[in-house]
Design brief:
The protein is mostly helical. The chain is built from 2 helices and no strands.
Length: 53
């Protein structure tokens, strides 16, 4: 991977994490709980898919 691609990925990751934190902070507790449940399901599915390979 070249340097500019790595910098772009790093910058995008930092921006995504920052926006995610901002969004979570502005959610109500009910919305936050629902989002965490969906995230756990998504991560579980991703782990299962990666385990297949």
């Amino acid at each position: 991977m070249n340097r500019s691609m790595m910098m772009g990925l790093l910058t995008g990751s930092i921006l995504g994490a920052t926006m995610g934190m901002y969004a979570v902070r502005n959610m109500s507790s009910r919305e936050r709980k629902k989002a965490m449940k969906q995230t756990r399901k998504l991560l579980s599915r991703a782990t299962n898919v990666m385990g297949m390979f």
